[in-house]
Amino acid sequence: MQAKRVTFPSKITPYLLLLPQVAVTLVFFVWPAGEAIVSSFYAQDAFGLSETFVGLANFAALLRDPAYLQAIGVSFVFAFCVTTLAMGLGLLFATAADAVGKASGVYQVLLVWPYAVAPAVAGILWMFMFDPSVGLVARALRGVGLSWNHFLDGGQALTLVILAAAWKQVSYNFLFFYAGLRAIPLGALEAAALDGAGPWQRFRHIVFPLLAPTSFFLLVVNLTYAFFDAFGIIHATTGGGPGRATTILVYKVFRDGFEGLDLGGSSAQSVMLLLIVIALTAMQFRHIERKVSY
């Protein structure tokens, strides 16, 4: 069936329709990114009144900074754990909802709610639940003999921000996985069942391969979310501490730029973060997308 072709009364109409999106992209992405690239080659005074061209000195200083190298390590651990946990739970909940069918309406609504919560609010909710003095989860853990204090323990603090960030993203993954599951032809599953394939075999050999395009899309989105959009959760929950235990790259950009007033170094970190995410995305398209059948 051939798709119906859209026609416009004037040649200029399509360009006028694209103009708002192009303006938003130029103002909110291209312009700030260009300013960050230019600023990364300068050293500014603390008040931003003067600047000196320093070439690649800001980038060289970053690679010699142990705190920046630690932030890279924390960022990759954080991104890997958040992506794995959020996608795994999203697929699990979507599979459960698909198995129930139309009766899962309330269940779906409850799962979507966390996506409407702002990241900073999500961080505060989890901080209160795990508060060492009044948190319900911290009390329950203490009841089974596990001491919890994420204000002092870096590992526990990182665990807390990973759980909060993954919880915030599970709803998004659930929606896409559920839509993907509903699009799988029932005939293929029924034929496999008639051939004696059990639930796990049907999921492994039919469902999971057919969900590959959705999984690949969500992998790219979740990694980008973990590197860029988790700032609000970390700022509200741990503030990057204790020490530098939860300082990921995007939070270090904020801390050095707005608290340390190192605008040139902060701009260089922004450029490095952008390059890291672009490299990760390119690697995914090069090595993973080839295994995806659309």
Question: What would your notes on this structure say?
Answer:
The chain has helices at 13-39, 57-64, 66-100, 105-112, 119-129, 136-143, 154-182, 186-194, 199-210, 212-229, 231-237, 249-259, 263-287, and strands at 42-44, 51-53. It has 294 residues and is mostly helical. The chain has a two-stranded antiparallel sheet with strand order 1-2. A hairpin with a 6-residue loop joins strand 1 (42-44) and strand 2. It is globular and about 75 Å long. The chain starts with 12 loop residues before the first helix and ends in a 7-residue tail after the last helix. 27% of the residues are buried. The model has no long low-confidence stretch (mean pLDDT 86). This is sn-glycerol-3-phosphate transport system permease protein UgpA. Residues 72-284 form the ABC transmembrane type-1 domain. The chain crosses the membrane at residues 12-34, 71-94, 106-130, 151-168, 206-228, 267-285. One of its GO terms (cellular component) is plasma membrane.
Number of helices: 13
User: How many E strands?
Assistant: 2
Q: Averaging pLDDT over every residue, what do you get?
A: 86
The side-by-side strand order for the widest beta sheet comes to: 1-2
Q: What is the rounded Rg?
A: 23 Å
Largest sheet: 2 strands, antiparallel
Q: Which structural class should the secondary elements be placed in?
A: mainly alpha
Which residues form runs of ≥5 with pLDDT under 50? Answer: none
